[in-house]
Amino acid sequence: MNIKDTLGSNLNAFVLLLVTLAAVPLAQMHGLKMMPGDVGDARLNNYFLENIYQFLAGRSDSLWHLGFFYPFPYVLGFSDNLFGAAPVYILMRMITGQADTAFQLWFLFGYIANFYATYYALRRLGCTQTSSSVGALIFAFALPTTAHAGHAQLHYRFGIPLATVFFAEFLAKKKMNSLVISGAWMVWQFYCGIYMGFFALLLLVAMSLVYFAHSKFWLKIKLSESIREFLADWQSKEIRQKAKIILLFLLLLCLLIVLFYPYLQVTKLYNVKRSWTEIATMLPRPQSYFLSDASHLWSTTNAKIFADIPMRHEHQMFIGVVPLLLAVAGFLIGSRSIHGQAYTLLVGALGVIIVLTLYLGGLSLWYLVHKLPLASAIRAMTRIDQMFLFPIAFLAAIAIDQIHNSAKWGLKAIWAIVIPLLIFEFSATKLGTSLKADWRKRLAETESILPKQLPKDAIVFFAQSKGPFYADELDTMWVALRHGVKTLNGYSGNYPPGSGYSSNYGDDCSVLPKRMLSYLKFVHQSDNLTYYRELMQRTVPIGFKGCEEKWLTSPPALSIIDRVYIADEFRKLSLAFIDKHPSNNKVNVGLKIINSGDIPIAASSSLGKPIRLSWRFMDTNGAPVSGWETRMDLPFDVPAHGDIYVRIPIESNMEIKSGTLQVSLVQELVFWGHDIGVPPLAIAWQ
């Protein structure tokens, strides 16, 4: 077998790829009319790719310090980077001249890269052309790939099969060259996406454990003997060969350091890590392996059986009935096949990782692993199904070869029954898409309100208008990137610290000084009025209401109190209605919080007992239709003998026409204003 054989001469594999590509993504994308993914995460990944293109074209300042969440540094480190998959996008971008079309073609090419990488890997493992084609089909198009299509950062996975097959060859033949090649593919996979790179590394580590365990306990080979076998190839090499291998490993190590240094900076600067509680919700449960809500064949059954699984959208791990049956058959016969050692390594590694990541009865061995450096950053462990598809593809290929060899009609059955059923099952599912025209319309509408003349160092900040909030943020990010300016807006896997970075703020201008103060606190310049004024003077707020002129030169007070306010201090507060106006499917009600006392009221509490606003509706008979569940933090301190303007958002589904809106103050976990003599504000609702 050679590369020409595996990549060029198998016309059947090429035709199979084209048919499935047409039946699954192209059919549901209606050619290039629909975009893969929604107006949120898909556009975020498109943004990352576009920034790489703009950087190479000299129109973006940095690959890491992107122009959103400005001026916070290393904001690309809040998410994946897609560097390794960018060359395809750059080529498509140069050909089409359009970012969204280039993204569509980039997405489609991902299927091709994944298919042929798996086909090549399976051929190197000794599978036939037909079985390698079926295995490649499973890896590239199985149900989990469609379920995760909205997460484009997971799409380019070609490094997984390639790193795995060369690592398997290294374990089998003890050749250092194979280890270098495996390492190169793994590093490339890390550059394509941190998640998939991490899962590739996890698979190789598990294979190593299985290899040494199998050698010691099954083959009865001492660990020292196994190590000597690996050292034999190294010792037999000439000095020049050894130097070359060392240099290659150092190069790969340097590439990883270059990639991970910014992520380490993010961890250090922002203290970004995921809690065990958050990770646990996205660890695979037994039922996760049977969930496929997007499948037209299996979604109804899933919905009834597994209705209570948390973060359900992340648990779509069912590989499909046909791949499952083939994998089970391959598992049962694989140990007797010609693929003995590869079978042991891949099946053993698959079993180890399933056991390691399984969440059962509130317990998981992964709890121990998540404490390792950077491991806690991998939040959605259910996405590991994208890596599992390679061992599954290998087992399916074993089964296909058995069918092929067991009877004269075997090959005909594969092409007439098995492959059509595979394609049918993969195509009978819903790929998450959105209209390309909607992407363009949103950008056009945002650009239409961008001031025509902007200073070169301008920082634009758009109010949220159309919704949902993440789409509004991405609209601004895209417009700012296209016009070469910075923006305070932003959306990513993490957010900068500070009270100014709540996700929903609508057109409330109080978020502007809060974001500035959040950044000044981050850089330990909270008292630097000059820096504050410089940033505010560069900022161009667009679409906001309630912006105060004094904020340009004097930041509002935003302090944290370390005690509880007593009742007499609280009674100095009162509420006054100012105005109301509709905005984005809700009504914003403007109020003043008035403080007639001698001490200011802090916006936050270090004890978790801040003063907040709450509201509810009364019906036409004066009876409450809900409790006081709503909450809103004070945007700033309420000065002594002064007041602040606050706007509370009233969702349309909460309104009671001809009823009464009541607004009250509460000191969390201490007392309600209306219980100690501060009456609620009553506003007639028309």
Give a nutshell description of this structure.
This protein has 686 residues and is an alpha+beta fold. It has helices at 3-7, 11-28, 41-56, 86-96, 99-124, 129-141, 143-147, 159-173, 176-192, 194-217, 223-236, 239-270, 276-280, 299-305, 321-334, 340-357, 366-369, 385-406, 410-427, 436-448, 469-483, 511-522, 529-538, 567-570; strands at 34-36, 433-435, 459-462, 486-487, 539-542, 560-561, 573-582, 586-595, 604-605, 611-618, 632-633, 642-651, 660-667, 671-672, 681-684. The mean pLDDT is 92.
Question: Please, could you describe this protein's structure?
Answer:
With 686 residues, the chain is of the alpha+beta class. The chain is built from 24 helices and 15 strands. The protein has helices spanning 3-7, 11-28, 41-56, 86-96, 99-124, 129-141, 143-147, 159-173, 176-192, 194-217, 223-236, 239-270, 276-280, 299-305, 321-334, 340-357, 366-369, 385-406, 410-427, 436-448, 469-483, 511-522, 529-538, 567-570; strands spanning 34-36, 433-435, 459-462, 486-487, 539-542, 560-561, 573-582, 586-595, 604-605, 611-618, 632-633, 642-651, 660-667, 671-672, 681-684. Strands 10, 11, 13, 14 and 15 form a five-stranded antiparallel β-sheet that branches. A three-stranded parallel β-sheet has the order 4-3-5. It has a three-stranded antiparallel β-sheet with strand order 7-8-12, with no helix packed on it. Helix 21 links the parallel strand 3 (459-462) and strand 4. Helix 16 (340-357) runs antiparallel to helix 18 (385-406). The radius of gyration is 29 Å and the shape is elongated. The protein starts with a helix and ends with a strand. The relative contact order is 0.09.
